[in-house]
Amino acid sequence: MKQSPDRLFARPLAEVPDFIFNEDVARVFPDMIKRSVPGYPTIIENIGVLATRFAQAGTPLYDLGCSLGAVTQALRRHVRTDGCRVIAVDNSSAMLERCREYLHVQDSMFQELLPVETIEADILALDLRPTSLVAMNFTLQFIPREHRLDLLGRIRRALVPGGALILSEKLRFEDTEEQALLNDLHLDFKRANGYSELEIAQKRSAIENVMKPDSLEEHRERLAAAGFRKVVPWFQCLNFCSLIALP
């Protein structure tokens, strides 16, 4: 599929609207995420690798907040467990439409991939089936904080013994010096990937009211409150990390 470069914030906007996952974002999302999230390709591919340890026969694997289906595609490339399928869920019709197109392309290139069910739904209202793996890749940070514990509790209760939640998130830091340093380094990463100061500033204005990162300590505490017994950070690059939470 043809991918467009991210120029959504390249021109001055009289008023910067809140960030939404609409058709404009869906069209440029692969370029946007690659240039904005350090380590993103490594996270995606290794979620597929990690999933092979936890996927159990006859259970679905969830990709919650699937966007264009990058995690879903990684799961399909790596998991060969009998009777598994991927359930990819997103509340954006624009993102899910393109996700289905990417999955169709993947189907044309590979054989014997896991089947996929794509669902347009609010994950807060989703009825989770017993599952051995749930992946939430940069999704929880867009959920209102007051609903995060309930969502994680429902995921914990849906996980079968030996299953896992893989949670990737942008982090904030309690130490002000650490926060300032990693924030500046992230801005340097964006500049190195060709974003202008105008693009950086306008994107920040668009997203700051809709994306609310937590600290690693907050993630640990909330996951424990949701019933997870162990939280293992397996990846961090600057202020982005991914965790394995075990029931």
Walk me through the structure:
This protein is α/β, with parallel strands linked by helices. The protein has a domain at 40-163 and 211-246: Vaccinia Virus protein VP39 (Rossmann fold). 43% of the residues lie in helices and 20% in strands. Strands 3-2-1-4-5-7-6 form a seven-stranded mixed β-sheet, sandwiched between helices. Helix 4 links the parallel strand 2 (85-90) and strand 3. Helix 2 (40-54) crosses helix 3 (70-78). The longest helix has 17 residues, at 93-109. The chain starts with 22 loop residues before the first helix and ends with a strand. The mean pLDDT is 96.
List the main descriptive attributes of the protein structure presented here.
CmoA; alpha/beta; Rossmann fold; 247 residues; seven-stranded mixed beta sheet; S-adenosyl-L-methionine; SAM-dependent_MTases_sf
- Under the CATH scheme, which class of the domain at 40-163 and 211-246? Alpha Beta
- The CATH architecture of the domain at 40-163 and 211-246 can be given as 3-Layer(aba) Sandwich
Largest sheet: 7 strands, mixed
Percent of residues in beta strands:
15-25%
